[in-house]
Write a structure and sequence with these properties.
Blueprint lengths: L20 H11 L4 E5 L4 E3 L1 E2 L2 E9 L1 E6 L5 E6 L2 E3 L5 H4 L2 E5 L3 E7 H10 L3 H24 L2 H13 L3 H4 L4 H6 L6 H13 L3 E4 L2 E5 L7
Antiparallel strand pairs: 1-9, 2-8, 3-4, 4-7, 4-9, 5-6, 5-8, 10-11
């Protein structure tokens, strides 16, 4: 199943910010040797604070999601390569955690050490580009779940789900994927998904999204 490409059916939805891959690769190249690496199974959780110190996480392989502790809502999801924890402050870090969505390779080091390496190697531009992308991703998600209609939110989440790695797509129902990232009711989500399936806009089996055929602008 090939990844969807942006097209007419994306009209009216907020565009995703471009991931600064070269900057991320450059930062990981310098930070990797100082990190403790671990191959983890899916659904492994990581806290941003260890002892009294913020932690920086290098996503070297796999994918993870950023969760809000208070309600378990997913604020953003990222595939490797990526870096979490460089923008966290103690007051913020206590309310967030990471969880792997598939088997992943994670590197961990103190945020203070990561920032020392960034300073020593004059990586400020790459660091800034990563922070801008991170803020843009979370802003885009928050706007999407607060200002769009229920159908527009579900449409956006279906497109994101369709572009997830196959290991994730095959192990979560479309309804649960949407509910974990939004404040929509289960009954409302199930009603719209059932209509989309009945009208041939999506193909699903036992709740697992198999393909997206055509999503109308309004529903």
């Amino acid at each position: 199943m090939s990844a969807l490409k942006p097209g007419p059916q994306d009209a009216g939805l907020l565009p995703e910010p471009n991931k600064p891959r070269q900057d991320i690769h450059l930062l990981i190249q310098h930070l990797s040797d100082a990190s403790n690496k671990a191959l983890t199974q899916k659904r492994k959780s990581f806290n941003f604070i260890k002892g009294q110190e913020n932690q920086c996480f290098l996503l070297l392989k796999g994918s993870v999601s950023l969760y809000r502790t208070s309600d378990g809502i997913i604020l953003s999801s990222e595939r490797a390569p990526y870096i979490f924890g460089l923008s966290s402050q103690n007051s913020v870090s206590q309310h967030l955690y990471l969880r792997t969505e598939e088997d992943s390779l994670i590197g961990m080091l103190p945020s203070s050490e990561a920032k020392r390496i960034i300073k020593t190697n004059n990586l400020w531009e790459s660091y800034a580009n990563l922070l801008i992308y991170n803020a843009s991703r979370i802003y885009s998600h928050c706007v999407a779940i607060s200002q769009l209609s229920s159908y527009e939110i579900i449409k956006r989440q279906l497109l994101q789900l369709h572009n997830e790695p196959i290991g994730i797509r095959q192990n979560i129902t479309a309804a649960n994927y949407i509910l974990s990232r939004t404040f929509l009711s289960r009954s409302g989500v199930m009603r719209i998904l059932s209509r989309l399936k009945a009208d041939g806009h999506i193909t699903a089996e036992r709740g697992i999204l198999l393909s997206i055929n055509n999503l109308p602008d309004n529903y």
